[in-house]
Amino acid sequence: MQPEDFVQKFAECFNTTAPESITAETEFRKLEEWGSMLALIVIAMIDADFGKTITAEDLKSADTVGQLYEIVKQK
């Protein structure tokens, strides 16, 4: 799993946010579209695309997409 692949898959979870506006430095909870439903979608994407299981607590402990990548990488 490469960081750019993770960022791309993360960005694909959004419907109205432009994928190119999401980078490893993006503070995803500040995005207008972010909410509990999108959090569940991201958790499911990580499981389906990367074979990793994260919890809501894991998600809460990350501020940026890059930090979330690092958490997923450690799983």
Any descriptors?
75 residues; mainly alpha; 4 helices; 0% strand; globular
Gyration radius from CA atoms, angstroms = 11 Å
Q: Please state the oligomeric state of the protein chains shown.
A: single chain
Average pLDDT over all residues: 96
Discrete helix count: 4
Can you give the helix content as a percent range? 40-55%
**Could you tell me the strand content as a percent range?**
under 5%
- Profile the largest sheet: none
Order of helical and strand elements: HHHH
Q: Please state the structural category.
A: mainly alpha
User: Low-confidence parts lasting 5 or more residues at pLDDT below 50?
Assistant: none
Query: What would the principal axes of the Cα set say about the shape?
Result: globular
| Termini gap | 12 Å
The count of DSSP E runs of length 2 or more, i.e. the number of strands, is: 0
